[in-house]
Amino acid sequence: MFDYKLLSALAAVIEQAGFERAAQVLGLSQSAISQRIKLLEARVGQPVLVRANPPSPTDVGRRLLNHVQQVRLLERDLQSQVPALDEEGMPERLRIALNADSLATWWAAAAGEFCADQQVLLDLVVEDQEVGLKRMRAGEVAACLCGSERPVAGARSLLLGAMRYRALASPAFMARYFPSGFDAGRLSRTPALVFGPDDFLQHRYLASLGIEDGFLHHLCPSSEGFLRMTEAGLGWGLVPELQVRDQLASGRLVEISADKPIDVPLYWHHWRNGGQLLGQLTEHLRLTAGQWLVPL
């Protein structure tokens, strides 16, 4: 039999990125959390955590975390059927990984009404759409938005649509680097903006123009900061169309090359045995995401 106090300690250490914050969340001392982790490791016969900063789960730790995530959601279903079991009456918390651009544009509008109606609290983990699935693989989240179609074992994926990105720059940037008009051959020698090391959108855009070599770029791991740096003329970048309608209409930003968008598919991944709440959120997103995402 599982001892869920021990599993809760493991989940808290991973979710809170350390023993100290895990202890605060669970209302325990840090030494008590440490003792629970040691007892769990003694029972499974191997480490469940890599003691790093922040701690990360071992392979067996990931499997235990996956189990905890699904049990939490299934327990909510049971509590709705047997209200006496819900001693605290606290809203459910869903831990979800999603990309920064979705968070900055359509996610709040899509999920807001659902969370209010279902009394759900969100614990959001921001990851690039190219790598968000690693959080599910690690057992850290119940669902994620990412660019990969293939789900991890025990999960399903659903195509919600695509985010449309446009390659944009300020008029001043275009005047400085392309005074005679856009020249694709010069693009790799002008500064670009890249969200982070896992962001390959700019690489894809340059490849579509026949440019395969490296290019100059700033790194800016903030969706809002990315847009502000583009407006300030520090570089050109691929920005979600949803985020820049006003800037395009007013002329504060312009496309560097006429009408060459890139559509990035977004797949919703969720556990098969995630309970009614996760199933309801999945259906809600299936029905509403098309208001903001383009079809593929």
Automatic annotation (TrEMBL):
Database matches in InterPro entries: ArgP, ArgP_gammaproteobact, LTTR, LysR_HTH_N, LysR_subst-bd, WH-like_DNA-bd_sf, WH_DNA-bd_sf
Keyword Magnesium (UniProt): no
Pfam family, one: LysR_substrate
DNA-binding in keyword set: yes
Residue intervals of the HTH lysR-type domain: 2-58
UniProt keywords, alphabetically: DNA-binding, Transcription, Transcription regulation
GO MF terms held by the record: DNA binding; DNA-binding transcription factor activity
Function: Controls the transcription of genes involved in arginine and lysine metabolism.
Subunit structure: Homodimer.
Family annotation (PANTHER family): HTH-TYPE TRANSCRIPTIONAL REGULATOR ARGP, TRANSCRIPTIONAL REGULATOR
Family to which the UniProt record says this protein belongs: Belongs to the LysR transcriptional regulatory family.
Official protein name in the record: HTH-type transcriptional regulator ArgP
Gene that encodes the chain: argP
